[in-house]
Amino acid sequence: MSFVEENDPEIFEAIQNEWRRQELGLELIASENVVSEAVLEAAGSVLTNKYAEGYPGRRYYGGCEFVDVAESLAIERAKKLFGAEHVNVQPHSGSQANMAVYFSALAPGDRILAMNLSHGGHLTHGSPVNFSGKFFEVIPYGVSERDYRIDFDQVRDLARKNDPKMIVCGHSAYPRSINFTVFKEIADEVGALLMADIAHIAGLVVAGEHPSPIPHCDYVTTTTHKTLRGPRGGLIMCKEEHKKKVDSSIFPGNQGGPLMHIIAAKAVAFREALGDDFKAYQQQIVKNASRLAGALQENGLSLISGGTDNHLMLVDLRAGELTGRKSQQVLDAARITTNCNTVPFDKRSPFVTSGLRLGTPAVTSRGMGEVEMDAIGGFIGRALAAPDNEGLLAEIAEEVTMLCRRFPIYPNKGKA
Ligand SMILES: *Cc1c(COP(=O)(O)O)cnc(C)c1O
After folding, report:
1. What separation in Å is there between the alpha carbon of 235 and the centre of ligand 1?
2. Catalytic site residue 79?
3. 303 burial via Cβ count (<10 Å: 0-12, 13-18, 19+)
4. Would you call 223 a catalytic residue per the annotation?
5. Which of the listed residues 172, 312, 314 should we mutate to test ligand 1's pocket, taking the one with most ligand atoms within 8 A of CB?
6. What is the per-residue pLDDT across 98-128, written as a single tens digit (0 to 9) for each?
7. Which residue minimizes the CA distance to atom 8 of ligand 1?
8. Could you tell me which of 416, 378, 414, 412 has the C-alpha nearest to residue 395?
9. The whole model's pTM is what?
10. How far apart are CA 258 and CA 146, in angstroms?
C-alpha cells in the first residue's frame, strides 16, 4: 500500500493511469524523456522540505549545510560536463533560465534577434504572447525556403540593419545542427551578446554528438529534462564576467527559494551524464532518429529539410489534406504520442498546423534501437494512411502495446 493510495485515492489513480500510459505507449514527443529511478528518488526526497534562499555558503536561512553539499555537487558536475566557466543550477525551468539571462543583460525595450517561432524558435525567444515579446523588441530570423537550414545571409543582414543588443540561437523544432561559429562571427561584427538556448540538444552537446556553444557564447541556457535526461528544470552557464549579474537575476531577481530536491536530482542526472554509458546513449538517440526519419520517408511521408542531424524530425503535411492536429489525434488512438507543430512557411493556424514533431530520446531511454524504429515508422505510416479507420488504429495500438511490454520503463516497478 502506498501513502498516496491510502490518503488520496483520486491522485493515486491519476498517477497509476499516467504510469500505464507511459509504459504501454510510445512517447515520441521530442522534448520528453524518461528519468532513471535514482533521479526520481532524489526528486521525491526530503530535500523538498528545505528553504535555502541564496547560494551555497551564503544562505538566508539556517540548516542549509546538507543542501549546500547537494547544490555544490550539482554545480561542479555541470561545469565539468559542459566545460563552462560559471553555472547556476537554480532555474525552476528553461523559461526562467531564459528570463534571468535576459533581465541580467538587457533593459526593457532592448532589441534581440531570435528565431521565428514558426521556424522552430521557442516562446521565450520573443513570442508576442510571452514576456520576451512584451519586454523586448524582437527581430525574427528564419530558415531559407530553399533548404530549410538557418538563413545566415538573412541573420547577418538583419543584425547589420537592426543592431541588436543580443542574438539568441538554439531552437525547439529545428532538425539540423546549429553552426554556433557563424552566429559568433555575426554577433562580433555587430557588437551583440550571444546566447544559445540548448534546451533540446544539451545531452547531444555533452556527448559530442552536436557542436558545443560554450566556447562561442556569453550565455548558454538549457532545460535539464529533455535529452539531458534529468528532472524538470533549468540551468544557466555563462562566462566568468557575467556570473554576478546572472546569479542575482535568478535570486533575488526572478525566484525565491530554490527547489533543493530538484537540484539534488539534477546532480544525480549530471553524474549519470558524466558516466561512460551516456555517450553511447546519446549516439543511439541520434542513430534512432536518423533511422526513424528514413522509415517515415519509406512510408511515404516527407520531412522538413529532408531528414535530421539530431534527435528530432518534422513531418511536412503541407501538401495533403491531413493536418498536424488530426495526425496527432490519429496517432493518439494508436497509442503513439506526438505533438502537432507549425512548419516553416505554414499556411495553417498554430492550432491546426501542417507539421508533426517526433523525437527519439524517450524511446531510446527504454532501450529501443534501430529495428524498433523501423517498426515505429511502419505503425505511423499505416495510421496516417488510414486516419479514419478506427479498427486499424485499434489494431496498431495493440501492436504498440506488445512492443512496449518488451521494453519496460521501470523494470523493478512490476507490470503496468
Ligand atoms: C523547452 C524549451 C524551453 C523551455 O523550457 P520549460 O522548462 O518548458 O520552461 C526553452 N527553450 C527551448 C529552446 C526549449 O525547447
Report:
1. 11
2. no
3. buried
4. yes
5. 172
6. 999 999 999 999 999 999 999 999 999 999 9
7. 94
8. 378
9. 0.97
10. 46
